[in-house]
Amino acid sequence: MFLYFQLGYYSSKGLHIISKSLYSIFLKINILIIDNCYPQSLHDYINNVLVPKTVTKLISEDYGRISLNEANKIMNDSVNFRLYIHDIDSIY
Questions:
Q1: Domain boundaries in the chain?
Q2: Residue from 32, 33, 1, 30 nearest 15 by CA
Q3: What is the C-alpha to C-alpha distance for residues 82 and 9, in angstroms, rounded to an integer?
């Protein structure tokens, strides 16, 4: 769950959509099984590995296919932006 707060400028709703999509893709058609992600659970693997990698790839695409290292930096640098723009409304 900690990583959800470190995934750049995507809103909580955006992260939910990404996570739900990954669950649909990998679990419903049995591409990802417990043996593939051991010692993590399927849930932890999706949230701690696949969601951050997907967000990094999406940011890379958003910025014209920049390198994944650059996208990762943007992801980390834009956490405060996300909190300010998207999640401030959920406080009130």
A1: 2-91
A2: 1
A3: 4
